[in-house]
Amino acid sequence: MTNIMVNSPLDQFDIKVFMGFVSPFIDLSNLSITTFTVYCVFVLIVILGLALLTDNNGKIVGKAMYDTIHNMVSGQIGGKLGGYYFPLIYTFFIFIFTANLISMIPYSFAISAHLVFIVSLSVVI
């Protein structure tokens, strides 16, 4: 059994170098884990950001739904009123569409089948 002497309660927070790497560009012996993690997260965000610049299937479906609803609203209401009411109609459509999709899952709660939901949604409008 080894005897470890603790001089101060803050000794546990001292950075001990177990394996160092020294190069002209970076010195990993003095680099903390937090800084290294920040660099890794930054590189990950840059790589994912570049990958998200291209359209994927989700973005294409979202754009198609947006354009379809926008064309319906502008065709039915038209003029400036179509632009005013479009965000409200789009939000209600997406909310009800998502609620109905979730209620298609077996043993899930069908929110649009309840009278309280329908009445409260109509009062909000």
Automatic annotation (TrEMBL):
Domain of life: Eukaryota
Membrane topology (UniProt): Multi-pass membrane protein
Segments traversing the membrane: 31-53, 81-99, 105-124
Key words of the record: ATP synthesis, CF(0), Hydrogen ion transport, Ion transport, Membrane, Transmembrane, Transmembrane helix, Transport
Localisation per UniProt entry: Mitochondrion inner membrane
Gene Ontology cellular component list: mitochondrial inner membrane; proton-transporting ATP synthase complex
An MF annotation (GO) of this entry: proton-transporting ATP synthase activity, rotational mechanism
Pfam families per the UniProt record, alphabetical: ATP-synt_A
Major localization listed first in the record, in broad terms: mitochondrion
InterPro entries recorded: ATP_synth_F0_asu, ATP_synth_F0_asu_bact/mt, F0_ATP_A_sf
PANTHER family, alphabetized: ATP SYNTHASE SUBUNIT A (PTHR11410:SF0)
Similarity comment: family membership: Belongs to the ATPase A chain family.
UniProt-recorded name of the protein: ATP synthase subunit a
Species of provenance: Cyberlindnera fabianii (Yeast)
